[in-house]
Amino acid sequence: MNLDDIPLFPLSTVLFPGSYITLRIFEPRYVDLVRHCTRTGSGFGISLILEGREAGEPALPAAVGTLGMIEDFFTLSDGLLGIRVRGSRRFKAKSTRIRDNGLIHAQVRWWAEEARIPVPPEYSLLCIVLERLLEQVGGDHAKAERSAFDDASWVSFRLAQLLPVEDTERQRWLELTDPIARLDELLHCIPRFQSA
């Protein structure tokens, strides 16, 4: 199977397929990245930082990440460029290299999109929790069709993005390829957020 070469944007957060993130762009390597992606209509990989920081020296990214597609541009209050990015498909990096400007590129293998599987009845609590969270945070997903709440992948990805957990736990959920297994792990962590 052929590998594709994509630029990476390591972050201190995890992006799931179908989720959105806003990024503040100020380093020259990422300004160039945004310019390239805009010109070519391509995306870039977003991977959790395992070692290092978002700014400065290139960080060590997790192997599994999500392709980000730029959906909007705006000027932030500090005058810097802001972009809205939507998570697309997941990938696993097989190798990485650092270009002269500090931008990391990865040779990646794409993961197949998860099949649409109905949410089993024993996980219906998660749909209720997700609805309540979306009522509070609003956004595009709060306007989703009712049918979305019966898609195990959609529900599990949305909850994994919204629950207040450590990014290492989010990364584990991103790396699961079975949406039911992801729902199971999410269900087991819900008691942590219930008041006594």
Automatic annotation (TrEMBL):
SUPFAM superfamilies: PUA domain-like (SSF88697)
One Pfam family it belongs to: LON_substr_bdg
SMART domains membership: LON (SM00464)
Domain Lon N-terminal: start-end pairs: 3-194
Name assigned to this protein: LON peptidase substrate-binding domain-containing protein
Source species of the chain: Tahibacter amnicola
